[in-house]
Amino acid sequence: MNVFDHPEFDNHEQVVFFSDEDSGLRAIIAVHNSNLGPGAGGTRMWNYDSFDDALTDVLRLSRGMSYKSALAGLDCGGGKSVIIGDPHMPRQQKDKVMRAFARAIQTLGGRYHAAEDVGTGVEDARIMMQECDYIFGLPDGSGDPSPFTARGVFESMRAAAKFKLGHDDLKGIKVAVQGVGHVGYYLCGHLHDAGAELFVTDINQEALDKVAADYGATIVKPDEIYGLDVDIYAPCALGATINDDTIPQLKATMVVGAANNQLAEPRHGDILHEKGILYAPDYVANAGGMINASEDIVGEYNEARATKKVFALYDTCMEIFMDSQESNTPTYKIADKIAEARMKAPKLELAAGD
């Protein structure tokens, strides 16, 4: 199968494959849409089971970045990159890989800007910036995006509670958090401070022990998280956890989380809507990190400006929820419609001026 026939190909503007024999680099960069600005998105390093899995991931994630940036009102397009490899490789070896990858990004001349993602971090961004002019999420700029992502998810939860329950006070609300890495940990902090009751799961026992000790969270087994009698299910690990197997287990009335591509297929958003489960589209709820990091692209970093945009995700979610209710349309379709209109606007304005 070629890229054009791939089921996740969505008229992507550019898909580039890179390899470097010396470092062992094998990577893919996908630029989905650059109408609003350069394709921007994180660099994910993962031990993919197959090349096709890596291609599927980068195509889906880059499309999601286009929609995320458009809905957040950013002057960025959508891009993403994946490096096929072990993110826990020795530091010296990883530095060689990241340098080689940064040189590959440089050859694109600014069409794609990269930041950290799953399997990469601020230190990797620091290494890449030594070889490339198009790295954001920098240590001396916006820095770690995790606290901003978590804050955006928290504000989206408040909006969901307001819409579903009539109030945005999360005191006493039961939340099941799947994944307590950087974003999940910060999210649990916000929820704890708000008085929510936490149930958490992760494959990392050390991370679980920390969130249990710091925030009084109850630890549950990974396969138990879906069927808990809670108000909110918060997927904050990898994607596709809303699927045919998990939806029948859900007792939560709201799904709001930080993971990308939470719906295994679009039809699962339809099923949530039919069941009366309020879904905050993932690329809306988790946009906080990108909002903050994009400050490195558009100019001098301004934390106050980024924070204001992150808090505005509350209003964006409310707009989507209201439109969904009024038109009896699943929330993901409403979000897609708004984002697509914004992505098309620059071309429409140019055409009108010709």
Would you mind describing this structure in some detail?
With 354 residues, the protein is of the alpha/beta class. A six-stranded parallel sheet has the order 8-7-6-9-10-11, with helices on both faces. It has a five-stranded mixed sheet with strand order 1-2-4-3-5, with helices on both faces. It contains 13 helices and eleven strands. The radius of gyration is 20 Å and the shape is globular. It has helices at residues 51-71, 91-106, 122-128, 146-165, 182-194, 205-215, 266-274, 282-285, 288-293, 295-298, 303-311, 313-327, 331-353, and strands at residues 14-20, 25-33, 39-46, 77-84, 112-116, 174-178, 197-201, 218-219, 232-235, 254-255, 278-279. The chain has two domains: 3-62 and 76-128, Leucine Dehydrogenase, chain A, domain 1 (Rossmann fold); 146-340, NAD(P)-binding Rossmann-like Domain (Rossmann fold), CATH 3.40.50.720.
List the main descriptive attributes of the protein structure presented here.
alpha/beta; Rossmann fold; 13 helices; globular; disordered C terminus
Biggest sheet architecture: 6 strands, parallel
Supply Rg: 20 Å
**Approximately how much beta-strand content do the residues carry?**
15-25%
pLDDT under 50 segments (min length 5)?
348-354
The string of secondary-structure elements, in order, is EEEHEHEHHEHEHEEEHEHHHHHH
Q: How much helix, percentage-wise, in residues?
A: 40-55%
Q: How far from one another are the termini?
A: 39 Å
Per the principal axes of the C-alpha atoms, what is the gross shape?
A: globular
Oligomeric status of the shown chains?
A: single chain
CATH architecture of the largest domain: 3-Layer(aba) Sandwich
Strand runs, count: 11
Please, how many domains?
A: 2
CATH class of the largest domain: Alpha Beta
Number of helices: 13
- Strand line-up across the major sheet: 8-7-6-9-10-11
Mean pLDDT: 94
